[in-house]
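ok so heres the complex, three chains, lmk if somethin looks off
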Amino acid sequence: MPETENTTPSVESSPGVGMIQMEVVSKWYGNFQVLVNCSTKVDKGEVVVICGPSGSGKSTLIKVINGLEPFQEGVVTFDGTSVGDAATNLPMLRSRIGMVFQSFELFPHITITDNINLAQLKVLGRDENEATNRSMALLERVGLMDQKDKFPAQLSGGQQQRVAIARGLAMDPAAMLFDEPTSALDPEMINEVLDVMTELANDGMTMMVVTHEMGFAKRVADRVIFMDEGRIEEDCTKDEFFGGERGDRAQEFLSKILTH
Amino acid sequence: MEFSYNWDWSVLLCTVEDVEIGCIAPYFYWIVEGFGWTIAVASAAWVIAFSWGSFIGILRTLEAPIWLVVPFLKPSMKYKSSVIETGNGAVMINIGWFLHGFATVYVTIFRNIPLLVQMFLWYFVLPEVVSKEAGMWLKREMPLPEYWTAVACLGLYTASRVGEAVRAGINSITQGQHYAAMAIGLTRVQVYRCVLLPVAYRIIIPPLTSDFLGIFKNSSLALTIGVLELTAMTRQIDEYSYQTFEAFTAATVLYILVTAIVMFAMRIVEGRVAIPGMISLGAK
Amino acid sequence: MEGSFDFAIILKSVPYLAEGMVLTFQLTFLGIAGGIFFGTLLALCRLSPFAPLSFVAGSYVNFFRSMPLILVIFWFYFLVPFIVGHPVGGFWSVTLAFIMFEAAYYCEIMRAGIQSVTLGQVYAGQALGLTYRQNMQYIVLPQAFRNMIPILLTQAIVLFQDTSLVYVVGLGDFLVHADIVANRDNRLMEMFTTVAIVYFIICLLGTFYIRRLQRKLANA
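and the predicted structre for the whole thing:
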């Protein structure tokens, strides 16, 4: 991210200090606790898959990382910058973390190209030409060059999600967060999105992915986090998780989603 | 009261030249002039209603804190939750709750007092409450006091309705869009300017149209403080000529004509700005 | 008199103001009742498959919605005696104006209400052998009313505020009575402030009631 200036000097990702670091993070909605003492760490280049039953807090967990959801206790740092600190420039921090949402969330009133250009122009301060060049390169990469002048609602779900990934990548992010990126897709479109994500992982992108796609986890993940009732119940390597060293709840969850 | 009525549509065509040949007054010009004032009141008031109303509506959608940086102020412990020290001699004060509250109170007050009463408050009461000099200025010295009072009153009143429409428009945009806009690093101002408002204003074209037509029709209330707009002029024609219904008909036709034109124009605008591929932008 | 707020004048004129408020409420209730009645009939016409009927109803609605209420009041105030053939008094002319004017707005509300009743309900009624009229009367309209109660009441508050426009024909409602006192005793500030506060409180109570009702209906 050479273009971004951060208010706080970023710590070079050294071993021991993760790109993303969470320490005993807790969060409440009123009296209801959605995150209970969550701690984990994601190193540079690591791909971490988060799974768990619905309502287990996994979506909230990754929204805490770029400050979309505030939290009440604990510490979250991204590349050395504390997310919960009131003095942190959150827009600047967020510009270094790409995020992909379950329901795409492209901006409906502007074209595909403008969707990818928007933050490059407004946040990174790139000029129109530079931004458009970058956008075109990314559209080429996700295979949607022919859709560049269309509006989001004119694309299929799978196409929209690939544009959303391109939008995130356009910022040259240090990490990408995926919040159930394939859950809202028709089955035949899931793979086109997973393929883009796999390619990204192979290129060394740091990724946190909330998903139920266990095939993707097996192929691509370095680690798997299993959440239940706001707690991180399992946080282990892929081989440990799929190799049978998981707890009862994770076992139960896996058998449920794998049998149908 | 007389119960036979002599229709005479020709009065509507009385011009200055006709005054000598039987018309008491140039009624035709009266209608044109009244219509002109109606448009003048409505359009000036709409400028206020739209800009101020948008501001009010946006304030009502703000939930996160808004920090105001104040240099050289020692925070007292009592308000600690809404005050942060920045470390370089200044403090940041959360004024979000205040702005939000102000907008809510504004809308509540302006929507719950009859417009005519508001008109009287601005015209008769305000000059008495302020200082003597200011009161004199409001009543006499400022140019066109009745006109500007009517404009301010209608504008501030309709702003409360526009504000509600803008708020509804913004609130109908999903939380996911907020998140996505923030996640790419936009500041709050940019989130509103680049993402939320362009969509919200498209959604609320129909209620905004109806608010504009509301201001247009409500401009007739200005007659109560002496603005000679369309309805007032027809009353005047009635008093001079006793051709009551001809005068009313003329006004009615003009009101309907403008309403029809505005609605037609806004339908075209709506079609022009419609987002390709979206069937309906309505709340999802 | 200058500078000080004279409470005595307000207290002294309470009975006279109350008298005006009675007229305000009369106009409001007659306007609501008549408006909803004719508005519902209009809505049924608008939704009628018989094109001329729905066209006439639609034109009626568009006509009245394009007109300033003040002009409608003037029209009825001067026209009704001519049509009836003898003086009927300002009250009835103006009441009729409110009913006809409000009918256009209530028509749109009731139309939305009727359309909010699912087609399945209509079919179910038909399947039981109910006639059109029975189906409307026992199945559709009761549900339409129920769905629209908050909006009907919100419109009632708008009408309550709009009755103040009878000022233009000098009918003795709350505002006009206050205006008379204000000009007689040169107490504009006191009287108009009082009027604003009283209207505000009544409308606010109404708004709170509607909000509570909405919550209750939403939970039901």
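quick notes: The first strand of chain A starts at residue 20 and ends at 29. thats all i got rn
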